[in-house]
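Data availability excerpt. The first of two example chains:
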Amino acid sequence: MLEKMTSSARGRILVIEDDQEIADDLVNDLIDRAYDVTHVATGLRGAEEARRGNYDLLIVDLLLPECDGFTIIQGLRGDGFRVPVLVVSALGAVNDRIRGLKVGGDDYVTKPFALPEVAARVEALLRRPLETRETILRVGPLELDLIERVARRGGRSIELSGSEFKLLEYFMRRPDRVVTREMLLEDVWHYRFLPQTNLVDVHIGRLRRKIDGPDGEPMLPNIRGVGFILRDPT
């Protein structure tokens, strides 16, 4: 069964989810947020619709009738589809999350989830520039392994917290681009409005000390009055 609902279209989203109650809640919430949403309840129909529809983002459950989400995502990536994919699944084990990302998912949300969290992740994925399916990001001597979730600078391993990892990934996807505090609050922490906070500056300070180390050239300078930028120091 294919259900299609249109709105003022901030973006076109395909939801592939067989649990009707979850699908209804998710679709209605996204429509309320002005997205154009199509819902498909089976894996084979979902794969077909993803290929023929011009979608900006897919939301894919992993446990689907006829064809599982892993197969759908892997097949689309193998055919060169670069549309962002948000995985939603009751499979919350680390190995399942890693597998979901390895086959081509861009982000992963475990059920049960809060609708505002899904909406925030959708917005972040739609704002992310289209990129190749790289699993290791590199800026100068700095690299970030998205699968193993480790960072290195030269031969030095860098231990990062979960929030530091997300923060560094955000910068490494936007090298040599100025990033404002407002962008970080919204896209990394999913805050719409948080006045008079030093949250960003505290995390930037910690991240800067880790990636620069005691002897490295600075890579994350302040742009006075604007924000921050990640640069190759060489």
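And the second chain:
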Amino acid sequence: MKIAILSRRPQIYSTARLAEAALKRGHEPHIIDPLHCYMEITSDRPAIYHYDEKLEGFDVVIPRIGASITFYGMAVLRQFEMMGIYSVNESVAIGRSRDKLRSHQLLSRAGIGLPVTGFAHTADDLKSLIRLVGGPPLVIKLLEGTQGRGVILAETYKAAESMIDAFRKLEANFLVQEYVKEAGGADVRCLVIGGRVVAAMRRSAKEGEFRSNLHRGGTASAVSLTATQREAAIEAARTMGLNVAGVDILCGKDGPLVLEVNSSPGLKGIEAISQKDIADMIIEFIEKKARPHKARTRSKR
């Protein structure tokens, strides 16, 4: 199959591993920078161009769209979908997972465990919003943040009020969330492919830090999942509509709490810790689910 990998740079570990796995399994991968694509939007022949090349004959698209290019990256992905090309994660599912408020609302409706979360437009009564999540310490999250960016721990009422007031003045949208002390600055990243948890790792924050992201200096170690953790990860990915997802879970006193569902999970840390070929598993999933594009099939006759 001819596979388009939407990614800003071919040297990114996850991008390179997916291209390597596709080649090894006999496919034809092409790494395409979505920001260098332009689209022809017509009713009969929608098309995409990468630089000056018209993109044709693709069977599958693997979106590796970073949060900083979500809007344009998803527009390019939708164009592939309009052309009838199978996407490993569909644009609508990526949109759900990227919107922290929407994703929390959907997870809540599905009955999946979450940290207590508050959201307000003006938050005129800041003390009420802070009390809603159990008081300080509490976590404040920008809706558009990723890899631990835009996530702040407020340890006192005064600190929380100052941070919330600053975000309001910047007209930034944010969530206020309870701080799950019993998690001890650690979470569990579960890698879900096709409704199955294929690998997991525990991520621990470095000393003096509460965010466990590896990009923030956190460390990773092997972990054995409980049945409830596994079930929560699978259900969270299913609720978002994602075939491939990284689901981050806190260990709460009453069970697993889903922090986030990531539509473009990094492969480097989890492949190293689990010693599993996750990239190969993703390509294998594609082989089972995707079909050669009709136009490509006709051209071979």
